[in-house]
Structure formats: structure tokens, C-alpha cells
Design goal:
There is one protein chain. By secondary structure, the chain is α+β, with helices and mostly antiparallel strands. 32% of the residues lie in helices and 37% in strands. The chain is built from two helices and ten strands. A hairpin with a 2-residue loop joins strand 6 and strand 7. The longest helix has 68 residues. It is globular.
């Protein structure tokens, strides 16, 4: 009987020990669950952050694209006077892009002399009238602001300053550019006004070359 009592007591002790072990394992499981929950929460937070970042990047890109398209379409224009006959008065024939005029008593006319000066064939322009021949003032008003404007002065047999070009940007006079003679009638003189964007008018004046000057090949860009 005493042996049975001892055996029963050992069984009870083993049973109680097993229950305590299960209780400890349950506690660890709860801890793991909390850890998993925190990890999931962090993951969700990171995902939200990435989403916000992507949205900001997309917005910046769209803004830049809209700005570029507002500039319009670039149109390169060359006015060379070559579709007209000799001594034709030039005024509004190119009024889609530019209108030519001159000081009182003069007109701007074509001359079939481009082969002499090395520009586009066959015509150049020159001022004619009661005050002078090829030495009068003339003006060009641009229908749309002109960018990258250039033109050629022709027949400058003198050296030093032989004329001047007054530049207007958006209706305001901003520069006076000298035209310097090469001392050679047959060398075209490039007048590069590309440093002045949005030109709305130029005035050619103070032509002092002994035999006057011709002009040709007005080249520029407009945005439509």
C-alpha cells in the first residue's frame, strides 16, 4: 500500500510539471504573435510611404511636360525675295511673318543682283527714292516675335561702321547693333541678332557706305 501511494504521488507531480511547461509555451506563442503584428504594421507603414513618394514624382513630371508644350510649334522662316521680278516694291507680301516699310520718300525694292554678292538667287533688296539710292532707312515689323534672327548686308566696299540696326524686343528698343564693312563689295556681311529673342521690330539706319548697301536672306524662328 505504501508503494502504491508513492507511485500515485509521483504521477500527480509529473502531471503538474507538464501543465506548467504548456503554460510557458503559450506565453511564447503570444509574444511571437505580437512580434508578427508589429512587423505587419511596419510593412503597411512602409507601403504607404512608398505610395506617397510615387505620387509626388508623377506630379512633378506632368508639370514639366505641360510647361514645354506651352511654347508652341517652332516654325523656321526664310525671307529671300526670290519669287519676285526686278524692281518690285516689297511691303506686305510676307505679312504672315513680317512687313517691310521705309522712311518717307523711299521704298524697299528688289534688285536682280544676288549672283554678284553670293546670297540666294536671284534677288536682294535695296531702298530707292528721292533721298538716296540703297542708303535710306527701312524697317521690318514682325507679326510674331522673332527668335534667332539673322540677315545679310551686301556691297559694303568701305571698312568700319557702314550702317546700324536698331532692335526692339516686345515693342521696346533694347539695342543698336553696328554693321561693320569688310572693304570688299562681294563679301556678304552676316548680321547675327540671335542674342536678342522675341524681336518685334528692327530699323536699319545710318547707312554710310559710299555706294549704299543691299540686304538679303532674313532668317528667323517663330512659335505658333
Amino acid at each position: 500500500m505504501k508503494s502504491e501511494s508513492i507511485i500515485n504521488l509521483l504521477v500527480i507531480l509529473l502531471f503538474l510539471t507538464g501543465c506548467e511547461g504548456n503554460s510557458v509555451e503559450t506565453g511564447n506563442s503570444s509574444s511571437d504573435s505580437d512580434s508578427d503584428s508589429d512587423s505587419d504594421s511596419d510593412s503597411d507603414s512602409d507601403s504607404d510611404s512608398d505610395s506617397d513618394s510615387d505620387t509626388d514624382a508623377d506630379t512633378d513630371t506632368d508639370t514639366d511636360t505641360d510647361t514645354d508644350t506651352d511654347s508652341g510649334t517652332a516654325v523656321d522662316v526664310v525671307i529671300d525675295f526670290d519669287s519676285f521680278g526686278d524692281h518690285v516694291t516689297i511691303d506686305n507680301q510676307y505679312d504672315q511673318y513680317a512687313v517691310f516699310s521705309s522712311e518717307a520718300g523711299n521704298v524697299v525694292r528688289t534688285i536682280v543682283k544676288a549672283s554678284t554678292y553670293g546670297t540666294s538667287l536671284p534677288n536682294i533688296i535695296c531702298t530707292y527714292g528721292s533721298t538716296s539710292e540703297c542708303a535710306g532707312d527701312y524697317y521690318v515689323d514682325f507679326t510674331e516675335p522673332a527668335f534667332e534672327l539673322s540677315l545679310y548686308a551686301l556691297g559694303a566696299g568701305d571698312t568700319g561702321q557702314v550702317a546700324q540696326v536698331r532692335v526692339f524686343q516686345n515693342g521696346i528698343e533694347t539695342a543698336v547693333v553696328p554693321v561693320t564693312g569688310a572693304g570688299d563689295d562681294y563679301t556678304p556681311i552676316l548680321i547675327d541678332l540671335s542674342a536678342y529673342p522675341e524681336i518685334t521690330r528692327i530699323e536699319v539706319f545710318n547707312v554710310t557706305d559710299a555706294y549704299g548697301l543691299g540686304w538679303d536672306d532674313f532668317s528667323f524662328t517663330v512659335y505658333e
